[in-house]
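Field log, afternoon session.

UNIT: design team B
ACTIVITY: writing a sequence onto a fixed backbone
BACKBONE:
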C-alpha cells in the first residue's frame, strides 16, 4: 500500500478539533481523493488536560507546536493556532524550512507574511495551502486559482466575515444589542480569539488581501487596504437602512480603477432587493466580476468548526495527491507590485446621518455645504422628534435630531471636505455617521 501522508496538527480549538473528527469520520473518502491514507501522528495545544471530545492518547503530544513542526514522522503540518506572529509564524517557518507541507487557516499570518512564506514554500518545492483562510467552507481560493484562467477580473467583493454578518443580521431581525450578538458569535466558535479583528474589519481586510493577490496576480498588500468595522453601526442606521430600501453589510471590495487597485473594507448599504442583501447570519458570499464569466457568486458558511475544517481537510487531501500549485496562481517573482488607488478618490453614493441642532436654517446650511462640494443629494430626510416637537412647536429648540442624506455619486474627498465644513459651522451635535452605498 502507498505510504500514508503523516500529519501533525498544531491547535486543537474550534477548527483543529473538527479537523480531527472529520479526518476520522471521512477516512475512506479522503484516502480515495488523496490517493493514499492520511494519518494523524502528532498534535499540539497549550492545555493537555482539556477535554477535546477525542482520545489524545492515539497521538504524540507536543506542548510546543514549533517542536511538532520539526518532528521527523510528520510530512504535513496543519497550523490552526492562529495569530500573525508568535507560535503560528514560527511553526510554519520551521515546517517549510524542513521541507514539510503546510496547511493553514490563518489569514492574519498570510496577510502579514504571505510573500515570505510563499517564497520559502516555493524554494523548498512544498505546498502551503490556505483554502480555509478565506470564507470558511467556500472553495474560493481554488476557484480563483484554478477555475478562472480564461478571465480578466475587474472586481471582487463580498461578505468575508461570518461574525459581523451574524451580528448585523440578528441586530436587524431580532432587535438584539451588538454585545449580545457578539457573545453568541463567540460561543458558537465564529469569532477570532480577539474579536476586535472581526468587528473592526481587520479579519475581512486580511482575507481581502489574500483574494486581491489571487484575483489580480499582485503581491499581497494588506497595508494598502482602507478599513472600517461595524462597531459604530447604531440601531438607528439599521432602521434607516430598512426605511430607505437598503440593508447594511460589512463588505470587502477589490476593484481595478484608473488609478490602481482599490481595496476597501467598510459597512456598506446594499439595495435590499440585491442578492448580497439576502445573505444572512454566519453565511459568506463572494462575487467575482470578470470578462468571460461576467458574474460569479459563491455563497456558503463563513465560519465555524466543521465548515472551516471542511476546507482544511480538502487541502490535506490535495497535499496527499502530491499536486503542488503555485500559491497565488503564479510564481512569486511574477506577482506584480500593483499601484493601489487611494481611498480619497473612491467614488460612489453615500448615506450620511447627521445629528443636527433642530432650528431654522440647519437643513439649508447642510445642503449649501454639500452643493459647494459639488455633491448632489438624492434624498434628505429629517426624522420627526417627539421631544423636539414638545419642547418647541416652532422648531427653534436646538434639540439634537437625526438628518439623513443619500447622495448621488460623489468622491470620498468631497464628502469629507463637506462634512468638515458642516462640523466647523456648528450645525451638528455629534460626529457624522457615513456609510458608503454599493449598487450591484
Ligand atoms: P481557537 O479555538 O482559539 O484554537 C486555537 C488553538 O491553538 C487552541 O487549541 C489553543 O490551545 C492552541 N494554541 C494557541 N496558542 C498556542 C501556543 N502558543 N502554543 C500551542 N498551542 C496554542 O481558534 P480557532 O477558532 O480554532 O482558529 C484557529 C485558526 O483558524 C485561526 O487562525 C483562525 O483565524 C482560523 N479560522 C477560524 C475559523 C473559525 O470559524 N473559528 C474559521 C476560519 C479560520 P488550547 O486549546 O490548549 O488553549
Ligand atoms: N472570525 C472569522 C469570521 C472566522 O467570523 O469570519 C472565519 O474566518
Amino acid at each position: 500500500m502507498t505510504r500514508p501522508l503523516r500529519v501533525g496538527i498544531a491547535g486543537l480549538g474550534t477548527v483543529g478539533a473538527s479537523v480531527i473528527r472529520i479526518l476520522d469520520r471521512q477516512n475512506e473518502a479522503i484516502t480515495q481523493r488523496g490517493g493514499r491514507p492520511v494519518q494523524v501522528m502528532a498534535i499540539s495545544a497549550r492545555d493537555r488536560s482539556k477535554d477535546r471530545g477525542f482520545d489524545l492518547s492515539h497521538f504524540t503530544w507536543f506542548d510546543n507546536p514549533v517542536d511538532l513542526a520539526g518532528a521527523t514522522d510528520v510530512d504535513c503540518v496543519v497550523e490552526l493556532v492562529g495569530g500573525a506572529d508568535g507560535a503560528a509564524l514560527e511553526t510554519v517557518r520551521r515546517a517549510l524550512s524542513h521541507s514539510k507541507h503546510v496547511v493553514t487557516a490563518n489569514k492574519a499570518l498570510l496577510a502579514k507574511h504571505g510573500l515570505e512564506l510563499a517564497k520559502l514554500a516555493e524554494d523548498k518545492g512544498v505546498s502551503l495551502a490556505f483554502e480555509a483562510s478565506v470564507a470558511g467552507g467556500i472553495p474560493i481560493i481554488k476557484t480563483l486559482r484554478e477555475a478562472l484562467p480564461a478571465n480578466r477580473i475587474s472586481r471582487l467583493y463580498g461578505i468575508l466575515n461570518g461574525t459581523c454578518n451574524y451580528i448585523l443580521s440578528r441586530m436587524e431581525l431580532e432587535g438584539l444589542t451588538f454585545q449580545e450578538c457578539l457573545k453568541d458569535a463567540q460561543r458558537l466558535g465564529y469569532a477570532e480569539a480577539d474579536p476586535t479583528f472581526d468587528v473592526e474589519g481587520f479579519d475581512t481586510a486580511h482575507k481581502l488581501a489574500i483574494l486581491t493577490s489571487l484575483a489580480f496576480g499582485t503581491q499581497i498588500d494588506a497595508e494598502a487596504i482602507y478599513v472600517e468595522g461595524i462597531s459604530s453601526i447604531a440601531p438607528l442606521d439599521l432602521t434607516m437602512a430598512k426605511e430607505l430600501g437598503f440593508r447594511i453589510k460589512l463588505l470587502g471590495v477589490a476593484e481595478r480603477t484608473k488609478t490602481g487597485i482599490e481595496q476597501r473594507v467598510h459597512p456598506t448599504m446594499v439595495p435590499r432587493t440585491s442578492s448580497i442583501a439576502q445573505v444572512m447570519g454566519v453565511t459568506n458570499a463572494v462575487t467575482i466580476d470578470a470578462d468571460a464569466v461576467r458574474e460569479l457568486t459563491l455563497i456558503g458558511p463563513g465560519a465555524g468548526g466543521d465548515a472551516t475544517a471542511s476546507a482544511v481537510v480538502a487541502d490535506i487531501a490535495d497535499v496527499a495527491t502530491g499536486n503542488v500549485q503555485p500559491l497565488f496562481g503564479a510564481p512569486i517573482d511574477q506577482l506584480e507590485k500593483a499601484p493601489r488607488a487611494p481611498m480619497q478618490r473612491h467614488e460612489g453614493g453615500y448615506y450620511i446621518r447627521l445629528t443636527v441642532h433642530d432650528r431654522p436654517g440647519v437643513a439649508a446650511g447642510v445642503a449649501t455645504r454639500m452643493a459647494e462640494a459639488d455633491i448632489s443629494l438624492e434624498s434628505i430626510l429629517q426624522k420627526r422628534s417627539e421631544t423636539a416637537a414638545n419642547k418647541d412647536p416652532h422648531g427653534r429648540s436646538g434639540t439634537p435630531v437625526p438628518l439623513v442624506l443619500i447622495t448621488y455619486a460623489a468622491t470620498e474627498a468631497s464628502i469629507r471636505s463637506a462634512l468638515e465644513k458642516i462640523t466647523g459651522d456648528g450645525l451638528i451635535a455629534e460626529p457624522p455617521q457615513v456609510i458608503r452605498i454599493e449598487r450591484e
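LOG NOTE: The pocket of NAP (ligand 1) is lined by residues 11-16, 44-47, 50, 65, 80-82, 87, 105-106, 132, 136, 189-190, 192-193, 303-304, 308 (CB under 6 Å).
NEXT ACTIVITY: expression trials, pending approval
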